[in-house]
Write a structure and sequence with these properties.
alpha+beta
Amino acid sequence: MNIKQSDAARAQIFKALADESRLEIVRVLYTNKVELNCGEIGEKCNLVKSTASYHFRTLREAGLTTLRKESRTKFVKLNLETFETYLPGFLETL
């Protein structure tokens, strides 16, 4: 990855984290240490389904989370590699 691509990735990550709801989603995923289904995360963060879906997509597109589908259930977990590469130590500050 060249510097320009790396800077674009950083900008997308910071935009994704510049929202309190998305920070709360990251915090919930980090403190639980396991993947959670979208409904569980929405409940813990007091988000309605459509709003939560938007935030999940933004985090996923920034490479901060991954999504796994099992039947009709979607599971989300943190992409720790992205955090370690671009924001080392960030998760421990939550």
